[in-house]
Amino acid sequence: MNVAVIGGSQCSQKAYSVAERLGELLAQEGWTVVCGGKSGVMEAVCKGAQEKGGRTVGILPEKDCSGANAFVEVKLPTGIGYARNVFVVRSAEHVIAIDGEYGTLSEIAFALSEGKTVYGIDTWDIEGVIHVPTPEDAIAAIQAQSKT
Amino acid sequence: MNVAVIGGSQCSQKAYSVAERLGELLAQEGWTVVCGGKSGVMEAVCKGAQEKGGRTVGILPEKDCSGANAFVEVKLPTGIGYARNVFVVRSAEHVIAIDGEYGTLSEIAFALSEGKTVYGIDTWDIEGVIHVPTPEDAIAAIQAQSKT
Amino acid sequence: MNVAVIGGSQCSQKAYSVAERLGELLAQEGWTVVCGGKSGVMEAVCKGAQEKGGRTVGILPEKDCSGANAFVEVKLPTGIGYARNVFVVRSAEHVIAIDGEYGTLSEIAFALSEGKTVYGIDTWDIEGVIHVPTPEDAIAAIQAQSKT
Amino acid sequence: MNVAVIGGSQCSQKAYSVAERLGELLAQEGWTVVCGGKSGVMEAVCKGAQEKGGRTVGILPEKDCSGANAFVEVKLPTGIGYARNVFVVRSAEHVIAIDGEYGTLSEIAFALSEGKTVYGIDTWDIEGVIHVPTPEDAIAAIQAQSKT
User: β-strands D32-35, D2-7: how paired?
Assistant: First the structure.
């Protein structure tokens, strides 16, 4: 199962730690991390996942892989810039947002418009986002949702 | 010059009237209305523009034109669903949002992430959106921006 | 009705003349020309159409309109490079290919894979393309097809 | 490194065997197979790769994973139909075509228009495609190209 993790390419140290921890947990569940493949939150979640042997996918805005963070295992260049955001969302059953700027907001909104559940940790306060305090809570919420 | 007008496929009568008035004004400026081609705000802005002889373009989610509103002159099917939102935004120099739900929010955020100015009338209260009270104010703001 | 006209951005004088004549005829039918908005065949068909008061749409590879030919009325930047080829094809009920290189071939093949009829004038000799000698024949063939 | 393997969703037993063997070889090189994720050649190359412990990615036309073949490890739904072909090509440094119909031809042509080398085994006879008789030759050609 794919889980999209979205968040800004620039982030606070706190958000980085949260994302890294989330990556570890996703890997332990055996879930694949799909993200935009860049720095910040995307790097952190890939780093955490890779440390636990998890699978990481980066859907890149550029035409080549040179801008990918060091922890993306499967690098997918698209050459369509930030329009690739819609494909990050489309690729996953569940979406978790951490922190983030306008790009993240576009992904949150697109996910909600497609009827996907979005879990948020310290991110945009948009109606419809299920805010959770920790990565552990996000995992628990997805587990509960997957059972129904 | 293209102006993207974004807003929900379902809207209040008030939003419909505002969008229709905006369409009239855009047509009078000689600007092309680009939208998602569906009902609600999209229909209203096309209706207003067409009544004043303006040009209207609808970038459609479906593979055919059957779902376009009656006032779209240039119908462009895409077959990519709501992912077409990114192309509505990409096609225009300026973006005006009226009312709207998640789809509109995704377009607002995507436009801001691409560095485009977004004018908003009774829409999502997102930092970065320049809120204007009336269609006339939106036109004036774009005119002022285009001069700089 | 939209007719996509596809062909290379560099073309012979003969292909240019054919495309220009095709543009005139499409305009006289009241059909909208959709193309990639660039030079060569795309420029010629827009030129012909515009001279007869027809409507021309250019789906551009770039993020802005600066690379459009002078005869595109509705300019739609996409920022996705040649991946925009699929949207040129998706936007039209009928496809006419003139001359062309690999980009044109990709559009021919994509159109055929989507079940669309492709008429060809001095273009790639691919099984499934209906080759016609002149623009007049292409128009006649589309008229015949539209009646069925 | 990603290698895109393209070919029809329906194929002969011979093409299936060739694709399966190619998958084995790609896996042994440590290269990731990217494909359209469906049946026929796509299934065969994933099967071969997975049997040798290789990584397989399927960029799917649908919005969900239900249509993926059984040997795709990383399933990426797109919801854009065959327009996903351009992303299969964009994602890879090298492209190998086996057999195939119009979809495959669109990918071959798109790859060539993007300046990518296409190796072909019993596929469309298009100028620019480097035809090789066996999967082993395709691997050798990519190795030679990667060294330059």
Answer: parallel
Cβ–Cβ under 8 Å, residues A2 and D76? yes
Give the distance, in angstroms, between the CA of residue D41 and the centroid of all CA atoms in the same chain. 8
**Does any CB of chain B come closer than 8 Å to the CB of residue A110?**
yes
Tell me the Cα Rg of chain B: 13
Query: How is residue C60 written in tokens?
Result: 């551009």
Name the residue among A53, A129, A47 with its Cα closest to residue A95.
A129
First to last CA, chain D: 15
Distance (Å, rounded) from C-alpha C31 to C-alpha C37? 17
- The size of the A-C interface in CB pairs under 8 A is 13
Residue tagged 């998890």 (tokens): A54
Give, for all 148 residues of chain A, the pLDDT tens digit: 999 999 999 999 999 999 999 999 999 999 999 999 999 999 999 999 999 999 999 999 999 999 999 999 999 999 999 999 999 999 999 999 999 999 999 999 999 999 999 999 999 999 999 999 999 999 999 999 887 6
> Which chains touch C (3+ CB pairs under 8 A)?
A, B, D
- DSSP classification of residue B31: P
Q: Does A62 touch chain D (CB under 8 A)?
A: no
Q: Which residues in chain D are contacts of C102 at CB distance < 8 A?
A: 109-110, 112-113, 128
Chain C segment 76-95 residues within 8 A of A by beta carbon are: 79-81, 83
Order of strands across the sheet with C130-131?
C74-77, C56-60, C32-35, C2-7, C94-98, C118-121, C130-131
Q: For residue B112, list chain A residues with Cβ-Cβ distance below 8 A.
A: 102, 105
Picking from D78, D142, D82, D79, the residue whose alpha carbon sits closest to that of residue D106 is D82
Residues in A touching B90 (Cβ below 8 Å): 83
CB contact under 8 A, A78 and D57: no
Crossing angle for the helix pair D135-147 and D13-29, to the nearest 10 degrees: 40
Test mutation, A80, A82, A85, A86, chain C, max C CBs within 10 A: A80
d(CA A28, CA C131): 58
